[in-house]
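Lesson 9: reading folded outputs for more than one chain in a single document. The general rule is that every protein is listed as its sequence immediately followed by its structure tokens, and records are never interleaved. Here is the first one.
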Amino acid sequence: MSARVVVILTTVVLLAILPSVAGNPFGQNVPRVCIQDGCMHGSWMRSIHGERYEAFIGVPFAKPPTGALRFANPVPNDPWADKDLDASGRIPRAPCLQQNLFLPERGVEGKEDCLYLNVYRPFLSSKKEGKQNSTATLPTLVYIHGGGFLAGYNSPLVAGAEKLMDHPVILVTIAYRLGAFGFLSTGDEAASGNFGLKDQRLALRWVQRNIEAFGGDPKLVTIMGHSAGGASVHLQLMHLGNEGVFQRAISLSGNALTPWSAPRTNPEQLARTQAELLGIKDAHQMTTSELVETLRSIDADRFVYSYKGFTVSFNAYLIVIYTKKKQNKFAFYQNGSRYPVIVYGPVVESTTVKDAFLTDTPKELWSLGEHLSVPWLTGIVPNDGFIFSAPILKDTDCSEKTFAQQKTLLLNVLGGAKQSDALPTLMEHFFNNQSTNGQCFTKEHVNILTKVFNEGLFEYPLILSVRQHANHTRSKAPIYLYKFNYKGPHSYSSILAPDNDPPQDFGIVHCDELIYIFRAPILFPDFRRNSPDAKVTKQMTKLLVDFARTGVAPKSTEGKTSSSDFPQALELINSNSEDEPLIQKYTNFYNEDMYNFWTRFYSY
């Protein structure tokens, strides 16, 4: 998709979703809500089934994190001027600075001034003027987008509320700082790190303080995230300062115990390397305070452009930074321009840091039961690992050097093994029946690589978190598991592998469940009304909304359960009926051989 087409499509979609703002946007019939910070006007939108709902787009929850607030904890925004805030969406807020993962031709986009949220509520929940303090009744879903902690949007173009607004629920979609702006750290008070997670925390506090004005119940708040957003939900559970801020949690294909969410082991070294890439001289001789002050003076766009410098060359997969004491691995991969290198993420902060978010590793906190006791719904799709194996499809230069880089990538993405026999163990376990004959991983190996990444980065961390949770009686809240196994006509594989020729079916891949939760008009066409896929959308969104209201997962439509000690997963799978296209049944999620293999692998 060309950049020109994207711009045109964006304009058309904005005109389509905001019909009420033409002419006078602040007429008497537009939605209006008053909160502690002031009053705002929104706009009318239509759900998938044509129900009218209210949208308040671009509501600030923090001061712009610029200047002295770059690489600093977020600060609540000041009340706005006497006049109403324009939250109609006529002038969309910029996303947080990033390079688009799914549409890389758009280049670097966004601004530092990006800490805004969107609120959507069904029309029937609207409070009449003067009665906004009446009893709140609706549950609220607060959505945290994914994107590897370096990209993602809360825009209605990719996280549209149209599908959820057919149910009695309020939806809040939040933005948080990404990449260096959200996660750069010097390991001390100069820049403690985890700013993106602290942005999420501040947004959740905003919801708790203001959601009643929108008709929501502050005692029925559910946080929900996908991928890095799902890992963020898990991390928010481990921040005890969130007590009472939310009452349910949903992690879609994301877990804080996975290697790609593990805290960086030497964030100060990474910050100094970042400074060198930006052309800052003597970066390794500065104090951390001097370093941060200098980094605050650099033009924001230059940070995102500089990320490619973390790769050795255009087709490089890994950069390994050596310090005097240890080897520190920062990068995951970059394959051409499609996947920017992922270097930033959570860090462990010193206990002396004011209002620290994470003072120990997630693995340690979770294993000790140091987390909030709220119901947690979490699960995966069959081929989540494709998000990491897809780049192999673009490899064309197969050489001994390329194969060595690929194998290094394999270990690095999986978390980096500590012993020399880790790679042979991996190759024997997964490739014993399909030898590479010393050649590169190619298209023929994509399914095996997907399985490797799926097990090591999604299934195993999930199972580990469930097993450890069961060992701590202090946490009485249940964990519910799901497996989204419905195959529809659209898939994110068409975006992750756009040059798939000849066509290959990659199954149900990372992000595919989102197609049935959010409207993403910039990526996929709408389902026909009453089509099987529209019915799956209604069922999937109902599952999430019911959980947000009750804290309990739905029962199997087949009425079958298992007596296994490990909790069963609610599997959502295709049926042979167009009238009822989705079957809900319980399935055995736990694979002991798989669990034991990865336990040994990560014990190296």
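And here is the second record, again sequence then tokens.
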Amino acid sequence: MRIHINKIDLVGTGREFSITPGLKIITGSITTGKTTLIKCFRGLLGSILKDFSREARQKITHLVGEIIIGDNAYEIIRPFVTTSDALISIAGENETKRLPALRSKSDEETYGTWLLEQLNLPTLRVPTAPTQDDSDTSPLSINDYMMYCHLRQDEIDSSVFGHTNFPKNNKRKYVFEVIYGKYDVEIAQLQMKRRETVSEIRRLQNYTKTIDEFLTGTPFENRAAILHNLNNVIRELETAYLDSETLGQEIRGYTNTDELRENLLEVQQKLDELHQKLQYEQYSLAQKQSLIAQLQTQSARLTKSIVAGKYLLDFDFLSCPRCGSSIQPSRTQPEICYLCLQQPEPQITQDDLIKEQDRLEQQITETFELVNAHRTATTDIEQEITRLDAQRQTLSFEINHRTRRYVSEQAEQIAQVEQHRTQLQEQKQRLEEYLGLYNRHDQAINTIQQLESNLEELDTAIDLANSRVSEFENYIGFLDRTYQEILREIRVPSFSDPGPSIIDRKTYLPRFEGRRFDELESQGLKVMVNVAHALAHQLTCIHFDLKLPNILLIDGLSGNIGYEGLDRERIEAVYSCIIRISHEYQNRLQIIVSDNTVPESAREYILVEFSDENKLIPF
């Protein structure tokens, strides 16, 4: 998938770079900021912003840039902090988001997962220990895929995409298999289900083993004996309940409290009814008092209206309020207003207001009568409640007195009955708990059998998925040939007994003339092999349209290669090869190189040249 950094602005430093397609070179002497700029590019592509210089930490506040993914352009604003949940702003033509960088508080989307989605890269969880069926799993992140797109300065002469680090090497191999189709989504899901199934089988087996060891050598190791004893205890417990009930009946019969208990129940029912009535009367009283207040307020308003009307009815205009001329009532007929010469509209008369006030006063009087009735009823109910409550206390005292007297006389018998019943209940509970262990043991065995059946089905499905025709070998064969062609083109020195230069089918590491990468002693040779290997991956994935981001960052290209004689020619050959590939795949592959020294033939591709006077992070 094509991904291109269009521009980047290191906010706080005044540094801004626009990057055209193809090859771009960052050059300059040591400690001037080349690696820092490469790491800022990676920051736009999702890496953690760590291991930056003190100057960069102090100056840079945000990374602001534009990236092209496929045919879509996105503006990115990322705070220059190390926290993995810092919010990154994304703005595209039809998309605007703010996402945490690489980690969220839940399973929400992050900038890393957003990049995976835009680049059409699968979201998978892979085992951390592939040889163990029950190993933990870890997700393949955007940075795991970007390993194949970045030759780091501290690894370019010693490691192939961090293969010397175990966790990174494990992810590196899985990314290889995902990109080249050997480890697809379907197989990953099946293998994950298989690991979960194996883990659950082992957990249940340990669980059943624990139960067996717990019961062995105890009186409860015989399940049939537990059932037999439980049935006996249940029968004895039923007898104990009958004895307890019989004893209770004897207490009531001896103490003659049945009639008292019935009277107490009747009194309690009456009290409940009276309390309900009391609540109703109190509520009604409050409602009537509120109504009286409303009626009195309305009556006061009518009084004001009557008084105001009395003073205003005889008010006449003797002169025009507009021009001041005198006005005679005889200027028109009596039913016509002599001021405005219009027919007056009907109005409420003073008599109407007085009648309405009389009606309100009568309603207030009637409501006061209802209030008094509710108060009387409330008082009567409260007195009755007091009387019945005293009666209830008397009955309760008498019942308790008679019962205590008999119980004290029969205390030993009652204690024995209750003790025996309690012991039986405890024994029943203990037997049921042990029987529950056997039941859970049976359930676990049944679940194990079902899971083992599921495991066989999963193994069959995995074998079927692996047996399908795959282009994996075809892809790797093309990768081998491309790797060999680039090695020849960049004039890598040869050994006297050369073997094949291929990709190891087990480790997925490059071999050079039959030698493993770790067997190569020359750092300069390791750099050339690393560059050829990384370029071969990009060209293979472009040729077959495989899922690898088509961008390559090379930090410190010739740092460990000499500059005399054949070494200089090899450096020029490396740059010549990169320039050729850049021209051929200019719209598909972006290559950004940092180097201390650049051959004359490549100087036209320089993006920026730093120096001690012109550092990336200015003083």
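What the second record shows: Residues 158 and 526 are 7 Å apart (CA to CA).
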